[in-house]
Specification:
The protein has helices at residues 35-45, 77-81, 113-123, 138-148, 152-177, 179-199, 211-223, 225-241, 246-261, 268-294, 299-319, 323-389, 432-435, 438-442; strands at 2-10, 13-19, 61-69, 89-97, 102-106, 109-111, 396-403, 415-422, 430-431. By secondary structure, it is an alpha+beta fold. The strands form 2 sheets. A 6-stranded antiparallel beta sheet has the order 2-1-3-4-5-6, covered by helices on one side.
Length: 443
């Protein structure tokens, strides 16, 4: 219920604060006292159309605030559609500016006027002197039937199932619409994975040369084999093979130091160091000889290495820029493929969930439909009794409940409801909107 109303700068009202008590509240006053302004203010709180003419003369902005106490605000259809933060009640604020702009807030959160109007339809209804004209709107007939027949709670239970079904159906449609893209992406990833796999790249190890670096080094050795052999052989000759080589001269020096040791033992460390150097040089010479023996010019091997490097370069251009990047991309493919393959499972699970929700909502809708038909008979009989007390005992009144032609689940269920009337004996029952007079509607 509406418990408080604050008005500032609306029409002739400067500032006004009203607290409504429980039950029936009555506002009385002479013509022109401002009673209709209060009704207009409540209408604005419910999303009614505002205009700059409603702002108090000399002011820039009109403000209307109201608080509605609701025990189960979360059950409102509006709250299920627009999941906003709520407490035990709803604080609504409406601002109308002289510029023509209108703003609305719900519990401090900005909402659109359209959203406010949706909420207002569920919060309250303003009954005016032309209220009987609402009976001409067939869309209101179903609401009247459900409310008067005590079916509103059952209708809300159905609507919760329906909205969950619609939500999951929308999620499923979105996933299915992306299924083609998912399949195309999966096909591309499979191709890329196979392309990298066919290359059989060696996994890179941190701190060690990768396959590409090793191949580049090997290719350089093959391309410059003759030069490398020459350098190695020259090293062997200079150190050992030639007359007057380094090893030969060091050996002569070492022999003389050994003779000198017989006279002066202080030369022992130098002789030992020189002997160690000779051994090291001999090892170096042996290594150079071994290196030179292994050097061969192999055109076939060079071609194979060049082709392998070309293959690695091609992969680097597509998935690089580095050798390590190609390997990392391969790992990314594996992760993305798992996620995409899980998407197929997600679609399957969601299809099952949507089917379960549809079946549950359909059963609840059929139950609601059966109860509506029962209530329609009872309410039709009661209306005829009331009409008889108003001197309309020959009028026939019937509430028609029919399932929509497609048997399709809709927000209110499966049914179309319309009030039918036959004002005079012998006439067929026809829609209220087509034949009821103003007097008949009023009664």
């Amino acid at each position: 219920m509406l418990t408080e109303l604050h008005i500032s700068n609306l029409a002739i009202v400067d500032k006004l604060h009203i607290q409504f008590g429980p039950g029936f509240n009555v506002l009385t006053g002479e013509t022109g006292a401002g009673k209709s302004i209060l009704v207009d203010a409540i209408g604005l709180l419910l999303g009614g159309k505002g205009s700059v003419e409603m702002i108090r003369t000399g002011q820039e902005e009109a403000t209307i605030e109201g608080f509605f106490e609701l025990k189960e605000a979360a059950n409102l259809r509006f709250m299920r559609k627009w999941p906003l933060e709520i407490s035990e009640g709803l604080a609504i604020k409406r601002l109308i500016h002289r510029s023509g702009k209108s703003r609305a807030f719900l519990n401090g959160q900005a909402i659109t006027i359209h959203m406010l109007a949706e909420l207002g339809e569920e919060l309250a209804h303003i009954y005016g002197q032309h209220e009987h004209q609402h009976f001409l709107n067939p869309e209101r007939h179903l609401e009247i039937l459900d409310r008067s027949g005590g079916l509103w709670a059952l209708r809300q239970e159905y609507q919760q199932l329906y909205e969950e079904w619609k939500k999951k159906s929308a999620e499923l449609s979105e996933l299915e619409s992306k299924e083609k893209q998912r399949a195309e992406r999966l096909e591309l990833l499979n191709f890329q994975e196979q392309e990298i796999a066919r290359a059989k790249l060696k996994p890179p190890c941190p701190g060690e040369p990768n396959e590409e670096q090793e191949l580049l080094q090997e290719r350089a050795r093959l391309v410059h084999a003759e030069k490398l052999f020459s350098f190695a052989q020259q090293g062997v000759d200079l150190l050992y093979a030639e007359r007057g080589s380094a090893v030969e001269r060091l050996q002569i020096t070492w022999q003389r130091l050994k003779e000198a040791l017989k006279i002066d033992q202080t030369l022992a460390p130098l002789a030992a160091a020189l002997e160690s150097t000779l051994f090291q040089l001999e090892d170096i010479v042996s290594a150079l000889r071994s290196y030179a023996e292994k050097i061969v010019f192999d055109p076939k091997l060079l071609e194979e290495i060049s082709l392998r490097l070309d293959e690695i370069q091609r992969l680097k251009k597509k998935y690089g820029p580095t050798f390590e990047d190609v390997w990392r991309y391969k790992e990314k493919i594996e992760i993305e493929k798992r996620n995409l393959e899980n998407g197929a499972e997600q679609i399957s699970d969601l299809q099952k969930k949507v089917g379960e929700l549809a079946a549950g909502a359909y059963l609840r809708a059929k139950d609601l439909s059966a109860k509506r038909k029962k209530v329609a008979k009872e309410l039709s009989a009661k209306v005829k009794e009331e009409l008889a007390t108003l001197g309309m005992n020959k009028v026939r009144f019937h509430i028609e409940v029919q399932e929509n032609p497609q048997g399709k689940l809709e927000e209110e269920g499966l049914d179309r409801v319309e009030f039918l009337i036959s004002p005079n004996p012998g006439e067929e029952l026809r829609p209220l909107i087509k034949i009821a007079s103003g007097g008949e509607l009023s009664r």
